[in-house]
């Protein structure tokens, strides 16, 4: 997140890192980056560094409907990453184990904290070349073929849309004012303009869930978001980061994000040659729709709640304006 939480001073991060991970933390710097988690870089007295993530579990509906269930969901996702790394998948960047053996701890009543190794590297918003994308396809194929150590730990796909209730309430509330903050009424006007398209793709998503014929025998561990910003470029190669969405699910949950950038035949050939698996076009579409509907629901929920004009809110407004154009992104027919 770009905006640091007022309720979490640096001293709180230092205390939690010392107590939970026995790391001799001396100072912490907030890192305004990403969307979803808060990040700090923590330095020890010897100059060693750790990467710390904090999640507001009251707003992580894709993990659980309230903080305690979201904590359990996030812990399982991080345990998946830990298990994969410990069984030889070194390109998985996993959390460090705390002194009590856990990978996730409570920071306060609604926030969790996790500590990761600090790795030098860069991320980009888009893949820089087809060759780089193909390297990620190879990495994802390796992940999908090495899933057994984490099968018993992982959450299972249910195809539930996070924030669906918020989206449906918003669609029913277009004729009454929204009072959440400066973007509440603009968001209502925007949804009113695109309500027909949003309802159509929601119906399409439900139809695909019911008709796609999911073959659970071919499910595997999926990262969930293998886009460019979740790939760390290091001197020793590419690393997959941000494992909070890890889940036992259809392989298309990862593949849909890689397919459009490379082209169907190229990805199909490379992935199938590596794994023997032929992807299902309907399930690819299902997950692409899931992504758009999830984004729309999350942003509308935020604008209907109390908010102020921050960098994160402005980024959410830009994103909503893009994803809500269902008739353009998903033409009918």
Structural overview:
With 333 residues, this protein is an alpha+beta fold. It has a domain at 14-118: 2-Layer Sandwich (Phosphorylase Kinase, domain 1). Helix content is 46%, strand content 14%. It has helices spanning 10-21, 67-86, 130-145, 148-151, 164-172, 184-211, 252-262, 264-275, 281-304, 311-323, 326-329, and strands at residues 25-31, 38-44, 49-56, 105-106, 111-117, 220-222, 231-234, 237-240, 247-249. The strands form 3 sheets. The chain has a 5-stranded antiparallel β-sheet, with helices on one face. The chain has a two-stranded antiparallel ribbon with strand order 6-9. The mean pLDDT is 92.
For this entry, give a set of tags.
333 residues; alpha+beta; Phosphorylase Kinase, domain 1; five-stranded antiparallel beta sheet; two-stranded antiparallel ribbon
For the sheet with most strands, the description reads: 5 strands, antiparallel
Fraction of residues in helices? 40-55%
Overall geometric form: globular
Helix-strand sequence: HEEEHEEHHHHEEEEHHHHH
Corresponding CATH superfamily of the domain at 14-118: Phosphorylase Kinase, domain 1
* Strand numbers in spatial order across the main sheet: 1-2-3-5-4
Quaternary assembly: single chain
Q: Helix count, per DSSP?
A: 11
What is the fold-level CATH name, i.e. the topology of the domain at 14-118? Phosphorylase Kinase, domain 1
> Please, what is the average pLDDT?
92
Query: Uncertain segments of ≥5 residues (pLDDT<50)?
Result: none
In short:
It contains 11 helices and 9 strands. By secondary structure, the protein is α+β, with helices and mostly antiparallel strands.
């Amino acid at each position: 997140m770009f905006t640091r939480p007022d309720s979490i001073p640096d001293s709180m991060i230092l205390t939690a890192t010392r107590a939970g991970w026995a790391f001799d933390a001396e100072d912490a710097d907030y890192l305004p980056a990403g969307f979803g988690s808060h990040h700090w870089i923590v330095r020890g007295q010897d100059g060693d560094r750790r990467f710390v993530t904090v999640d507001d579990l009251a707003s992580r509906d894709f993990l659980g409907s309230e903080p305690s269930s979201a904590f359990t969901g996030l812990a399982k996702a991080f345990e998946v990453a830990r298990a994969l790394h410990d069984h030889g998948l070194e390109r998985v960047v996993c959390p460090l184990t705390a002194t009590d053996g856990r990978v996730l701890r409570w920071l306060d009543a609604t926030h969790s904290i996790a500590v990761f190794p600090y790795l030098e590297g860069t991320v980009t918003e888009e893949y820089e070349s087809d060759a780089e994308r193909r390297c990620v396809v190879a990495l994802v194929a390796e992940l999908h073929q090495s899933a057994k150590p984490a099968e018993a730990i992982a959450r299972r796909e249910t195809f539930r849309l996070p924030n669906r209730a918020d989206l449906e309430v918003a669609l029913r509330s277009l004729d009454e004012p929204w009072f959440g903050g400066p973007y509440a009424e603009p968001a209502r006007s925007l949804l009113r303009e695109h309500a027909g398209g949003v309802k159509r793709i929601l119906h399409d998503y439900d139809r695909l869930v019911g008709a796609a014929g999911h073959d659970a025998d071919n499910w595997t561990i999926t990262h969930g978001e293998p886009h460019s910003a979740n790939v760390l470029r290091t001197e020793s190669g590419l690393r997959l980061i941000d494992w909070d969405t890890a889940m036992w699910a259809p392989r298309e949950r990862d593949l849909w994000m890689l397919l459009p950038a490379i082209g169907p035949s190229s990805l199909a050939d490379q992935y199938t040659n590596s794994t023997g698996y032929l992807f299902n076009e309907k399930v690819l579409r299902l997950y692409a729709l899931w992504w758009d509907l999830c984004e729309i629901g999350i942003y509308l929920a935020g604008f209907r709640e109390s908010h102020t004009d921050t960098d994160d809110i402005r980024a959410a407004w830009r994103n909503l304006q893009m994803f809500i154009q269902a008739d353009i992104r998903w033409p009918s027919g």
